[in-house]
Specification:
2 domains, 33% strand, Immunoglobulin-like, Glucose Permease (Domain IIA), four-stranded antiparallel β-sheet, mainly beta, 11% helix
């Protein structure tokens, strides 16, 4: 798929809402008419794999999205996001100090994912060994522990930048269907620069929550950064990690070098973003690569 077509596909279904002071991810768009949306002052990309920022109504004591708690900053600002397979509607609710509840039903636009139908069954693989299983469980435990960290940094408020520039060689959400059996969808965006060793930078401020001491079986040298409010970035297949766990990093700071460690067929940077358990599309945070 040509790059122009890629970006058009990824922007499809994006919705821009009433503006929020303090900037936003991406490029935004026309504001909706004032109404109950003003109660939450939302702005962002209300689509599968997308995000929104907002501000709770005055006097709000708690906020939930589909019944799940949403963290609110001291100034009333909050972040929410929608998984690649999110339902088409969601309910945002703020409980006020007097016990009353303000709700807003959100329309989450569906996406047209890049789906390839392969008229063959998935290739049979060798069952993993017991040694692999034990090692993999330990790796996944590290990843889960890192993602459980709910930091209070402000990187989530910033417009994100691309960690590296090159050819977008893998799209978030793309998937292969093998003779009717769905394979796992691609959980991030791949950036190929043509050579290992290319430096990449932090897309936003954050704290390093995982810097692999040795290559993971699938991810290789894995680096993860917490941007606050449950939002985090992961960078896979690094040839070198240049920061340490617990270190605070700034947007644009060089944090590693691109490689092909782990399960990779060539040097590239796999960049993925999650908000709690929701997998998100990095393109909706940065806009098209310039």
């Amino acid at each position: 798929m040509r790059r122009a077509a890629v970006f058009a596909c990824c922007a499809a279904g994006a919705v821009a809402l009433a503006g929020v002071a303090g900037g936003s991810f991406g490029t935004g768009g026309p504001a909706l008419a004032a109404g109950r949306d003003a109660d939450f002052a939302l702005a962002g990309e209300l689509t599968q794999g997308g995000w929104a920022r907002g501000r709770v109504p005055a006097g709000a004591a708690a906020l939930t999205l589909d019944g799940q708690p949403v963290t609110v900053a001291p100034d009333g600002a909050f972040l929410l996001a929608f998984d690649r397979d999110a339902a088409r509607t969601a309910t945002l609710a703020a409980r006020l100090a007097d016990g009353s509840v303000l709700t807003r039903r959100l329309a989450v636009s569906p996406r047209a994912w890049k789906i390839e139908h392969i008229p063959l069954g998935p290739k049979p693989g060798t069952p993993p060994s017991e040694a692999f299983r034990i090692r993999r469980e330990a790796e996944l435990a590290q990843i889960r522990a890192a993602r459980a960290i709910d930091g209070h940094g402000g990187g989530w408020r910033q417009p994100f930048i691309w960690p590296a520039h090159g050819r977008v060689s893998g799209l978030f959400g793309s998937q292969r269907i093998y003779n009717g059996t769905p394979g796992a969808y691609h959980s991030g965006t791949d950036i190929a620069t043509g050579a290992a060793g290319t430096p990449f930078v932090a897309p936003a401020d954050g704290v390093v929550i995982l810097a692999a001491r040795s290559p993971f079986t699938l991810e290789g040298n894995l680096l993860m950064i917490d941007h606050g409010m449950g939002l985090n970035s992961a960078f896979l297949h690094c040839s070198q990690i240049l920061v340490r766990q617990g270190e605070t990093v700034k947007q644009g700071q060089v944090i590693g070098r691109i490689g092909m460690t782990g399960r990779a067929t060539g040097p590239h940077l796999h960049w993925s973003i999650k908000w709690h358990d929701a997998r998100l599309d990095p393109l909706l945070f940065t806009g098209p690569m310039r």
